[in-house]
Amino acid sequence: MKNKKVIFQDWGLVDYQQAWDRQEQVFAETVMAKTQNRNNNTDDPVHNHLIFVEHPHVYTLGKSGKPENLLLDEAGLANKQATYYKINRGGDITYHGPGQIVSYPILDLDNFFTDIHLYLRTLEEAVIMTLADYGIQSGRYEGYTGVWLDADNERARKICAMGVRCSRWVTMHGLAFNVNTDLSYFRNIVPCGIDDKDVTSLERELGFKPDIEEVKQKLKLNIGSLFEMEILEN
Fold first, then answer.
1. Which pLDDT tens digit goes with each residue over 110-122?
2. CA atoms within 13 Å, Cβ hemisphere of 208
3. N or C: which end of the chain has fewer CB within 10 A?
4. What is the dihedral of CA 75, 76, 77, 80, to 10 degrees?
């Protein structure tokens, strides 16, 4: 039996390691529930989760990333009041910080569709729809994940990065959407391993600082609509 109910939580501003530990716990519980169902030959619904969070300044390197794409040494990280983690998602290096919506969907894709490519494209579409709510046209850049502006010309710039992990069709990690983000922190890395493209934010594109809580609400509703979720507030 498919369960499209999703428990939504906004964790607020949380240290990256603390949020990673919490995310791993929810992920492990979800995988365990699926395994128990299979072992017991039952079809009990497995919970889905949609988590929003912001992090203090942090750089994270995915499994396929190159450590040299971090352009700071330990002293430089300390000067920027930033931390650095090698983590178990796909993708290269990225930055998280205040004013950026990080979304961690922990979904049993057996409840939706078992297609990781479609999963990534659907998350991208939710951000594209959210940007359209603010009158900003965006799209995809062929050969790359994430959401881009002016992807078809030399002004191409990335506004949302993505990196996920999936095991037994349960997802974790997700997307990072620059809303009111301090973009100067991206100068200390080769973002996503791409050294010839710019990074932008909703604030920079609009010319004013949008209400991040309003943006979260729009993004949440767009994710819910595309996945045909019933979102339960926790």
1. 999 999 999 999 9
2. 3
3. N
4. 120
Q: By the 8 A CB rule, do 98 and 13 touch?
A: yes
> Model pTM?
0.94
Q: Confirm if 123 and 104 have CB atoms less than 8 A apart.
A: no
First to last CA, the chain: 23
Q: What is the 3-state secondary structure (H, E, C) of 82-139?
A: CEEEECCCCCCEEEECCCEEEEEEECEHHHCCCCHHHHHHHHHHHHHHHHHHCCCCCE
3-state class of 199 per DSSP?
Answer: strand
Bigger pLDDT: 128 or 195?
A: 128
Q: Residue 119 and residue 126: Cα distance in Å, rounded?
A: 11
3-state DSSP helix/strand/coil % of the chain, to nearest 5: 35, 30, 35
User: H helices of the chain, where?
Assistant: 16-40, 74-79, 116-133, 202-206, 212-227
**Of the candidate ranges 9-13, 39-43, 158-162, the one whose mean pLDDT is the lowest:** 39-43
What would the pLDDT profile of 118-171 be if each residue is shown by its tens digit? 999 999 999 999 999 999 999 999 888 999 999 888 899 999 999 999 999 999
Distance CA 232, CA 6 (A): 6
Residues carrying an active site annotation: 192
Structure tokens, 98: 């205040």
Domains delineated in the chain: 5-233 (3.30.930.10)
